[in-house]
């Protein structure tokens, strides 16, 4: 196969492939960046993965990488020169950061998040800011104040959420890498429904400094990519201890790249895999379950020892999650009051209280207001013990279920989400239905351990992507990378290539080609 | 028409009612940086120059605990005979106010770092009252609102407000007493004595500037009354804006007389925050608390728990200074003071500063003479306590050392002290800048002596004839010529040398 040279073909390459070509001097980072900027201008009018494209900043960053390489310097990192979409929840010095909310419309942060800083220092080219549900509250990106993102597989369907922009930018080949945040599934569920890879690292594995807080004890930044190896490479760039985040783990980043490379050998002998029995049955789409069962058989075929594991408290995880996240959010979002930055609504001469009230009324969307009210109620004196206090107890029980399970197995597996991408608009008036999209993903957030979603196939009913979730103990993220990479290699070999390369065309794109794999 | 008296005569108040006090003291720690970020804490800086994303509460910012502040908190707790929690957390206190950047204050709620302590407070007549300490907890200060256009800088009637976030995030320790009961008519005195004793203790710990005038020590006074002979607490009020020790006493006394008048008139006390007015020495109603504000406390998820090890606490216990009460006992013995002399020094607030000056190298007599005379006058003129003067014991000791070394006369020493008080720097800097060093250059002095002798030949002859006492006139002339910057003793020696 000939080397991809045209702009469109460049966007089909993985991050690892792009980095290899850039670092070998075969193509410039600027050309790679320009190719992705071209792709964005072609398709993003339809997809709407980006809220802000930083064309000049991206090209400047790419040229800086090229200049260093031309001067004979070593690449700054394994991903130097590779473009990336950054979820609009991370602060970017000098570049707008909205969190998908009107209330931050026009705010230009004066500082970089630690993740942003690490990306810049690694020479990763930040293309722009990815769309998201307002303040990361949602499972469809329909709650963005700036309009929904569409699923590149079917424009009438949701790309998942809250990080729908990050995931869609990968599936639409607008970026080979993205960074998301996962509070209850916001990286993994979009990855599952777009046929991409999404990782929620161990809580504390990636700094939260500069990540605009939704639910502090649950929020975790993580890598999004089209392959497990790319996710691992990005994980090592953005992970690690940060003295500016007290909850950051003071330990080395787990050896995730080595684990991903090891896993690609396809040998899982000696690895014990637990199937969570609670994640099946009512509410699960048959095509999702059949894809999951096939995935489990694939793992067995790779030599893994597969057992069923019951985690009885997982069924309480979702209600507990929907008490903890609104409680923390009600406090975290109190600062948006028009006094210092962002939107300000109110007549001249209005009191500070009136301005605060009018601004919050106008600036927050319905879902954000719902969570603020839920959380305010749950924390109120007289209700605290019954709601927030009980939820914390459930959290402990969920952690114990994980601890007991990981006594028996190395990783746990489940479908990432009970259904494939649902139609835009279907659940906007039914918050409970929307919340159920997080059913399989929230236990990991409550317990603080790690999980990855890897494409497992297409659902029989609708031909849409399904995700396999692999869960690992806290600070053992490498285990899920190994299992995820092994599964990915086996699936791709059986299906003749990466699932996402089969993503149907979007306006202005060329037909996807098979990769050289 | 009859009007109800606004206050009741104090003697009648205490005959009919039994006061119960609760004092909440906020202390700003004098750490170099803020509670949760690296910003400086210097008092009086240009507004909004000591700020960063964290203390401005910018989206995405996170707190990191200042270890020095935790250390101060533990030392304060130990000095107040408290238990130190082996594991405690910060909590968020949620309420909206423009000078609070996050619209929640990071504080401690049901897990204070120090709890269950006490402090013995000595009253003017030597009686001691033991005040129970409920808790001491860590929190961050808010910014400052400056309300423009209204009366007295209060928000009522203001056209707009200016916000200064320099103070936002400065470390605070809140120290809360248990109810102080059974002190009867001495309640106002006890309140003042408690705050005074606490201030002295905090100063000895060197954890805070404890300047009530600058707000680094703030006292909220809770007062309630109950009929004599009953045990149930009455409804309390909380008086804020009590900015001096004297005001603590007056605010409590005024509240007692006001509440008594209300109760005697058949009225009910409204649970509210009241504002002490320095001018009128009265309190007025502020924010009503009848619907208790719900702060929706919950554990701060952005911070990890504080778990001081027993070793660390033991090491900090060893750093505790001598307690003020013990210091006084020791000093009375060492300086051989009568009870009355000690009480005079205590009332002048001079014991600690004198002791610290002695510790810095001066003799007790030297230290006493400076603090109770010249420095006392300066404090009096400025209307502040000795310890609040902008000169410290170490600086006074330095001045005394310069006098002893013959480099300053007493007169020059006063000028050096004036310079330090005026903010001109350390004593040595003032000496250099004002050119106050004693003229100890013998050749210059000799020239001045010769000149004086030549100007008064008759006096010179008398000295030469052995009338040594006549030298006084020449000494005076030389001192005048050198503008007092000569060491009179050396001048006298030179005169006698020249006339021998």
Q: How do the strands of the widest beta sheet of chain A line up side by side?
A: 1-3-2-4-6-5-10-11-9-7-8
Strand order of the largest sheet of chain B: 2-5-6-9-1-10-11-12-13
Low-confidence spans of chain A: pLDDT under 50, at least 5 residues? Answer: 507-517
Using the alpha-carbon principal axes, give the shape of chain B: elongated
How many beta strands in the DSSP annotation of chain A? 11
Question: Helical segment tally of chain B?
Answer: 16
Question: How would you describe this protein?
Answer:
The complex is a heterodimer of chains A (517) and B (500). Chain A is an alpha/beta fold and 517 residues long. Chain A has 17 helices and 11 strands. In chain A, strands 1-3-2-4-6-5-10-11-9-7-8 form an 11-stranded mixed β-sheet, sandwiched between helices. Chain A is globular. Chain B is an alpha+beta fold. Chain B has 3 domains: 10-311, no CATH class; 322-434, no CATH class; 442-498, Arc Repressor Mutant, subunit A, CATH 1.10.10. Chain B is 38% helix and 19% strand. In chain B, strand 5 (114-122) and strand 6 form a beta hairpin. Chain A: It catalyses: L-glutamyl-tRNA(Gln) + L-glutamine + ATP + H2O = L-glutaminyl-tRNA(Gln) + L-glutamate + ADP + phosphate + H(+).
SSE layout:
The complex is a heterodimer of chains A (517) and B (500).
Chain A: H1 7-10, H2 15-23, H3 29-47, E1 50-53, H4 55-70, E2 83-87, H5 114-121, E3 125-130, H6 164-171, E4 177-181, H7 188-194, E5 197-200, E6 221-225, H8 228-238, H9 256-263, E7 272-276, H10 286-301, E8 305-309, H11 317-332, H12 352-363, H13 366-379, H14 385-408, E9 411-415, H15 431-435, H16 442-447, E10 450-458, E11 465-472, H17 477-495
Parallel strand pairs in A: 2-3, 2-4, 7-8, 7-9
Antiparallel strand pairs in A: 1-3, 4-6, 5-6, 5-10, 9-11, 10-11
Helix pairs in contact in A: 3-4, 8-9, 9-17, 11-13, 11-14
Chain B: H1 10-16, E1 17-28, H2 67-79, E2 83-84, E3 91-94, E4 104-107, E5 114-122, E6 128-140, E7 144-148, E8 160-164, E9 171-177, H3 187-205, E10 217-227, E11 237-242, H4 245-264, E12 272-277, E13 282-288, E14 298-299, H5 310-318, H6 324-334, H7 339-347, H8 351-359, H9 364-382, H10 393-404, H11 410-421, H12 427-434, H13 442-455, H14 457-464, H15 471-481, H16 488-498
Parallel strand pairs in B: 11-12
Antiparallel strand pairs in B: 1-9, 1-10, 2-5, 3-4, 3-14, 5-6, 6-9, 7-8, 10-11, 12-13
């Amino acid at each position: 196969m000939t080397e991809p040279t045209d702009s469109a073909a460049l966007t089909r390459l993985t991050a690892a492939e792009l980095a290899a070509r850039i670092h070998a001097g075969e193509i410039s980072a600027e050309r790679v960046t320009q190719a992705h900027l071209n792709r964005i201008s072609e398709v993003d009018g339809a997809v709407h993965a980006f809220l802000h494209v930083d064309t000049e900043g991206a090209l400047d960053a790419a040229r800086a990488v090229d200049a260093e390489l031309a001067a004979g310097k070593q690449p700054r990192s394994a991903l130097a020169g590779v473009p990336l979409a950054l979820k609009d929840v991370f602060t970017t010095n000098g570049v707008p950061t909205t969190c998908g909310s009107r209330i931050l419309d026009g705010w230009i942060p004066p500082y970089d998040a630690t993740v942003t800083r690490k990306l810049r220092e690694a020479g990763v080219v930040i293309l722009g800011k990815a769309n998201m549900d307002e303040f990361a509250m949602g499972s469809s990106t329909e709650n963005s104040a700036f309009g929904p993102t569409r699923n590149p597989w079917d424009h009438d369907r949701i790309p998942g959420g809250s990080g729908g922009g990050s995931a869609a930018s990968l599936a639409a080949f607008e970026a080979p890498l993205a960074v998301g945040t996962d509070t209850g599934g916001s990286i993994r569920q979009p990855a599952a429904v777009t046929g991409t890879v999404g990782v929620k690292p161990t809580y504390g594995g990636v700094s939260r400094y500069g990540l605009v807080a939704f639910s502090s004890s649950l929020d975790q930044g993580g890598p999004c990519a089209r392959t497990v190896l790319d996710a691992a490479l990005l994980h090592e760039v953005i992970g690690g201890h940060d003295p500016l985040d007290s909850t950051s783990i003071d330990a080395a980043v787990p050896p995730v790249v080595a684990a991903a490379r090891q896993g690609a050998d396809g040998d899982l002998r000696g690895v014990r895999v637990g199937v969570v029995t609670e994640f099946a049955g009512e509410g699960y789409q048959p095509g999702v379950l059949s894809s999951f069962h096939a995935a489990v058989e694939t793992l067995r075929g790779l030599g893994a020892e597969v057992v069923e594991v019951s985690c009885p408290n997982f069924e309480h995880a979702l209600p507990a999650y929907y008490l903890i996240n609104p409680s923390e959010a009600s406090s975290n979002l109190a600062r948006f009051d028009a006094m210092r930055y962002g939107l300000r609504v109110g007549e001249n001469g209005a009191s500070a209280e009136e301005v605060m009230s009018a601004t919050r009324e106008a600036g927050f969307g319905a879902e954000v207001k719902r969570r603020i009210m839920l959380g305010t109620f749950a924390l109120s004196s007289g209700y605290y013990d019954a709601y927030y206090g009980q939820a914390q107890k459930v959290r402990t029980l969920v952690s114990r279920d994980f601890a007991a399970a990981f006594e028996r197995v190395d990783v746990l597996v489940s479908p990432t989400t009970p259904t494939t991408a649902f139609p835009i608009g279907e659940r906007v008036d039914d918050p409970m239905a929307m919340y159920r999209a997080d059913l399989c993903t929230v236990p990991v957030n409550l317990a603080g351990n790690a999980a990855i979603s890897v494409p497992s196939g297409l659902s029989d009913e609708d031909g849409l992507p399904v995700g396999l979730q692999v869960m690992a103990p806290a600070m053992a993220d490498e285990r899920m990378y190994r299992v995820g990479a092994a599964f990915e290699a086996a699936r791709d070999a059986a299906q003749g290539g990466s699932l996402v390369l089969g993503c149907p065309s979007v306006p202005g794109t060329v037909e996807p080609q098979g990769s050289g794999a | 028409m009859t009007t109800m008296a606004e206050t009741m005569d104090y003697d009648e108040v205490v005959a009919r009612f039994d006061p119960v006090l609760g004092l909440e003291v906020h202390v700003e720690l004098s750490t170099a940086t803020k509670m949760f970020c690296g910003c400086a804490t210097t008092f009086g800086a240009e507004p909004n120059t000591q700020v960063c994303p964290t203390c401005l509460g910018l989206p995405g910012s996170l707190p990191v605990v200042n270890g020095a502040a935790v250390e101060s908190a533990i030392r304060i707790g130990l000095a107040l005979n408290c238990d130190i929690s082996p594991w405690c957390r910060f909590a968020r206190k949620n309420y909206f106010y423009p000078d609070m950047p996050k619209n929640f204050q990071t504080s401690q709620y049901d897990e204070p770092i120090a709890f269950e302590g006490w402090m013995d407070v000595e009253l003017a007549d030597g009686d001691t009252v033991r005040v129970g300490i409920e808790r001491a907890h860590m929190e961050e200060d808010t910014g400052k609102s400056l309300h423009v256009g209204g009366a007295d800088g209060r928000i009522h009637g203001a056209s707009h407000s200016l916000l200064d976030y320099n103070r936002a995030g400065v470390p605070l320790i809140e120290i809360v007493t248990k109810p102080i009961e059974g002190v009867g008519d001495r309640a106002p005195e006890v309140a003042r004595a408690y705050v005074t004793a606490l201030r002295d203790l905090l100063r000895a710990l060197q954890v805070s500037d404890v300047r009530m005038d600058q707000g680094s020590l703030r006292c909220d006074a809770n007062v309630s009354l109950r009929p004599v002979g009953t045990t149930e607490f009455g409804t309390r009020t909380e008086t804020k804006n009590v900015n001096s020790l004297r005001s603590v006493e007056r605010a409590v006394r005024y509240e007692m007389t006001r509440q008594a008048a209300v109760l005697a008139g058949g009225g009910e006390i409204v649970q509210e925050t009241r504002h002490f007015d320095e001018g009128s020495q009265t309190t007025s109603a502020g924010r009503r608390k009848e619907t208790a504000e719900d702060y929706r406390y919950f554990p701060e998820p952005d911070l990890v728990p504080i778990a001081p090890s027993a070793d660390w606490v033991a090491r900090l216990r060893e750093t505790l200074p001598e307690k003020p009460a013990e210091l006084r006992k020791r000093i009375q013995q060492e300086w051989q003071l009568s009870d009355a002399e000690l009480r005079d020094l205590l009332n002048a607030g001079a014991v600690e500063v004198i002791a610290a000056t002695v510790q810095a190298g001066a003799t007790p007599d030297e230290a006493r003479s400076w603090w109770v005379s010249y420095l006392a006058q300066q404090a009096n003129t400025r209307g502040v306590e000795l310890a609040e003067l902008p000169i410290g014991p170490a600086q006074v000791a330095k001045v005394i050392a310069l006098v002893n070394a013959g480099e300053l006369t007493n007169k020059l020493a006063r000028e050096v002290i004036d310079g330090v008080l005026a903010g001109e720097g350390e004593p040595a800097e003032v000496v250099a800048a004002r050119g106050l060093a004693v003229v100890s250059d013998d050749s210059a002095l000799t020239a001045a002596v010769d000149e004086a002798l030549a100007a008064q030949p008759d006096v010179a002859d008398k000295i030469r004839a052995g009338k040594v006492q006549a030298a006084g006139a020449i000494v005076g002339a030389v001192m005048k010529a050198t503008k007092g910057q000569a060491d009179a003793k050396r001048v006298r020696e030179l005169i006698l040398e020249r006339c021998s």
